[in-house]
């Protein structure tokens, strides 16, 4: 029974094996080592696209339903909600299951092997605030692997996998802290390099906070006010006003929630807001976004702006491209504003890293190396928060997007 290592991420998924004890990542699409965790139910072609093809279809304006960030829904009631997609009534466990089935099929085609077992990564905590939801999330994911055709699935904490893949970054006896900041969660593993092939894991912890939360915060700060968030709505009777309710805007700024906004009730609510708006121009943009299903296009624009504003070169003023709302329109995203806006989130990440070390009854000053992995570890605010809390530690950058799958591949080899 061959085991496939799978890092099912909020934003990106990867798969690998380690036939001779050396991790070998499997190209899941066109030579790429990672596959965007996204699907598109294409109404014309009557098929489910995944990865880059899904995002391309969305951005090209194809008719259909796009979904990204599905991992964030694990453990929530939305997972069991059924919806009609290409003529079938599917719940979100089916959708995750089909995504994983496609990963399995592609890995089998690429390697010529059959994989009936999976070694999957998991965040230390899917839901940091709610233990019951956290347990449910793992059950949901287990069920999705089952529906994907894996007869067996085992789980390994994602940062522990990253520690395995980065054991050579430490000198024997040194203490390392993996800092894995992904799309949906931040995960930490404190470990000691013993000198041999094995490592000694001292503590792991994590919180439900990642790059998609940065995207949401930036969207709420810069984009949603332009769609009427926080603006005055006149009461249907009389002269009083109230503020437009936040729920629609919050969901529109949240990757995983966007597909749930395209039903008739939300559209009716938005039309009603527009009718009574003190700033009809802004609410008209909300109506357009819902009518033309532009929520993901906006989310991609915010994410691209975040990455641009985070990059070191300061020649061009960073912007959020909102040309889907109005030709050539952009919203400025000043670097200082972004840093201030995201600092409180980065502080929560730093505090969680410290707690991991305290869990092992050690001092932060004992940590020799911080091993940064995960796409959001590239954020300057994150690095600054960690460096301030671990001033003595050297920073080592692991492979941002593939360290976890490399560790899972290594471990999967032990299982046959
Ligand atoms: N150059 C960059 N600068 C800043 N952020 C980046 C950069 N590249 C990617 N990101 C962010 O990293 C996140 C994705 O990282 P990653 O692929 O590690 O997450 P994931 O493994 O899918 O999620 P998780 O582990 O939380 O389930 C996204 O939020 C993305 O916007
Ligand atoms: Mg990850």
In the CATH scheme, the class of the largest domain would be Alpha Beta
Q: What sort of overall outline do the alpha carbons produce when their principal axes are compared?
A: globular
CA gyration radius, whole angstroms? 22 Å
* Uncertain segments: none
- Ligands bound here? adenosine-5'-triphosphate, magnesium ion
Q: Calculate the mean pLDDT score and round it.
A: 95
Describe this structure in words.
By secondary structure, this protein is α+β, with helices and mostly antiparallel strands. It folds into two domains: 2-166 and 399-414, 2-Layer Sandwich (Nucleotidyltransferase, domain 5), CATH 3.30.420; 213-338, no CATH class. Helices cover 38% and strands 24% of the residues. It has helices at 52-59, 92-111, 131-147, 158-165, 211-223, 247-252, 264-275, 280-291, 295-310, 335-359, 380-389, 403-414, and strands at 2-8, 12-17, 24-25, 35-36, 38-42, 47-50, 64-68, 82-85, 88-91, 115-122, 152-157, 175-181, 186-193, 199-207, 232-234, 241-243, 319-321, 330-332, 369-373, 394-397. Strands 1, 2, 3, 4, 10 and 11 form a six-stranded mixed beta sheet that branches. A five-stranded mixed beta sheet has the order 14-13-12-19-20, sandwiched between helices. The chain has a three-stranded antiparallel beta sheet with strand order 6-5-7, with helices on both faces. Helix 10 packs across helix 11 (380-389). The model has no long low-confidence stretch (mean pLDDT 95).
């Amino acid at each position: 029974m061959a085991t496939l290592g799978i890092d099912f991420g909020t934003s990106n998924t990867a798969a690998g094996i380690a036939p001779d004890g050396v991790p070998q990542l499997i190209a899941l699409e066109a030579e790429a080592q990672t596959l965007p965790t996204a699907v598109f139910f294409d109404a014309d072609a009557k098929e489910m696209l995944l990865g880059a093809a899904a995002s391309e279809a969305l951005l090209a304006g194809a008719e259909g339903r796009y979904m990204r960030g599905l991992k964030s829904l694990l453990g929530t009631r939305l997972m069991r909600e059924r919806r009609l997609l290409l003529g079938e009534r599917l719940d979100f466990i089916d959708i995750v299951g089909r995504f994983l089935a496609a990963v399995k099929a592609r890995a089998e085609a690429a390697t010529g092997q059959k994989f009936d077992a999976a070694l999957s990564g998991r965040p230390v905590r899917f839901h940091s605030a709610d233990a019951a939801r956290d347990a449910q999330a793992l059950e949901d994911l287990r069920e999705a692997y089952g529906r994907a055709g894996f007869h067996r699935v085992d789980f390994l904490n994602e940062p522990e996998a990253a520690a395995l893949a980065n054991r050579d970054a430490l000198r024997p006896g040194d203490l390392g802290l993996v800092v894995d900041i992904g799309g949906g969660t931040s995960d930490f593993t404190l470990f000691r390099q013993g000198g041999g092939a094995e490592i000694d894991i001292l503590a792991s912890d994590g919180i439900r906070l990642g790059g998609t939360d940065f995207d949401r915060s930036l969207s709420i700060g810069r984009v949603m006010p332009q769609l009427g968030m926080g603006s005055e709505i006149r009461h249907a009777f009389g002269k009083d006003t109230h503020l437009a309710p936040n729920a629609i805007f919050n969901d529109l700024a949240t990757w995983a929630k966007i597909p749930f906004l395209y039903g008739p009730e939300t559209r009716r609510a938005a039309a009603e807001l527009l009718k009574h708006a003190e700033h009809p121009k802004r609410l008209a943009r909300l109506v357009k976004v819902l009518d033309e299903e532009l929520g993901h296009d906006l989310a991609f624009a915010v994410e691209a702006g975040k990455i641009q504003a985070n990059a070191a070169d300061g020649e061009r003023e960073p912007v959020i491209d909102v040309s889907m709302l109005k030709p050539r329109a952009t919203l400025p995203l000043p670097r200082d504003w972004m840093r201030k806006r995201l600092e409180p989130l980065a502080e929560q990440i730093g505090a969680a890293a410290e707690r991991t070390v305290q869990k092992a009854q050690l001092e932060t000053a004992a940590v020799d190396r911080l091993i940064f992995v995960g796409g959001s570890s590239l954020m300057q605010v994150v690095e600054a928060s960690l460096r301030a809390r671990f001033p003595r530690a050297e920073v080592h950058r692991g492979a941002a997007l593939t360290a976890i799958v490399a560790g899972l591949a290594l471990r999967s080899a032990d299982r046959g």
